[in-house]
Amino acid sequence: MNITETKKAMDYHFLADYITDIFTTTLFDNGGTVTYDALDTDKQKAIRLDFFDRLRQKNILITNEFSLYFHDLYPGSCLNSILESYIQNSNVADMHAVKEQLSKFQDKKVTLIYSDDFGYPCVTHTRVLQASIKSYAQYSDSLYIAHLPKRKRTAYEVHFLPYQKLAVYEGWKPVGKEYTNITKYRAFDDRFLTDIINILGQPDAQY
Question: What are phi and psi for residue 131, nearest 5 degrees?
Fold first, then answer.
């Protein structure tokens, strides 16, 4: 582990303890005298929403990478599913904004940069045929894109889910193969998009 990775682990450990303290305070402020898992569904929902508000008020950013770190640190914690829900809820509003932007790119060349279902980096040069928000599997909101990839004659359909990352650039942007090398990045590694943005600049749409 290099110095940068060591510092990140220290920062993540501090953040994990800080978030746990916020959640514990939220639980007791809502009259919690038993564990979160022992509460009924309505009470759990009220506590989750209050907890989410406190995270936003403190401008705490929860990334997929941190969520995985927290899960490894506290595998049995109820906060694992709560943090996953927080990430998904935070992304839904941005997902709707991306849908509106993609509608403006209909029939135009775009570069889609995203993480696949397993969290690994992908780059697709394509033309957008249609974009909309649809329910998919257990998710009430997913970003549906029908598109025609470069050098393909058949349209493809894809659903992007709230936990996935997506950046959209107008035009077909050159992206070196090293940025889609799965040996360079871990699953759901936020460095992937950061590295791409450092090279290509800010995307036209992102969530």
Answer: -140, 135
Strand 109-115 relative to strand 205-206, pairing: unpaired
Residues 75 and 48 in one domain: yes
Closest by alpha carbon to 167, among 65, 84, 64, 95? 95
Final residue before a domain boundary, out of 30, 58, 90: 90
- Rounded to whole angstroms, how far apart are CA atoms 185 and 15? 22
| Beta-bridge partner residues of 167 | 113, 206
Domain count, the chain: 2
Beta carbons within 10 angstroms of residue 156's beta carbon:
13
Clarify whether residues 167 and 179 are in a common domain: yes
Structure tokens at 87: 């990430």
- Whether this prediction's pTM lies above 0.85 is answered by no
123-157 pLDDT, tens per residue? 999 999 999 988 887 676 789 999 999 999 999 99
For residue 43, the enclosing domain spans 3-90
Per-residue b or e along 8-33, where b marks 16 or more CB atoms closer than 10 Å to that residue's CB = eeeebeebbeebeebbeebbeeeebe
